Amino acid sequence: MVDAATARAQLASLTVAPPGTMAGYSRSRFTHWAEQGDRCDTRETVLRRDGQDVVRDAECRAVTGTWRSLYDGAVVTEAAEVDIDHIVPLAEGWRSGASAWDAARRKAFANDLRRPQLLAVSAASNRSKGDQAPDRWQPPDRSSWCQYGRAWTTVKAAYGLTATEDEKRMLGTMLDTCS
What we know:
The chain is an alpha+beta fold. The chain has one domain (about 5-175). Helices cover about 35% and strands about 15% of the residues. It has seven helices and five strands. The chain has a three-stranded antiparallel β-sheet, with helices on one face. A two-stranded antiparallel sheet has the order 4-5. The two termini are about 15 Å apart.
């Protein structure tokens, strides 16, 4: 994760543009939960990375563990109640430039374990977020705003995605919470 100063520089470099059309969008255009080796897909890899005391079965599925959801502070002990959030949602990526990408780049975006694009969070918080950008949805736990703003900005900058003026403004507000 980049520091706040780096995130501010990344935020300043984002190209401002209105949201693109959703024409042609489908989640299936972003191959997600790709194989990551050792019978584990991206979802199971993130569950292990973000959880504590995670025990997996022979097929790499999380059986037990504990996850703390960044967005709402909820502590979850059942893997079925944990969603893997795309910090920058796939639909938001589509609206801000991914519609022009090839299948390989969309797959990389949907399964990116190198950048802060994937995060285990409570299913309830992920579903309340949906595909909204930060100007329309913010994590209810304000103490997470700094990390969320840094992650969102890092992903948008890394993939050359655009941002709306309102989105950039709210990201600046989020980065203002960094100490």
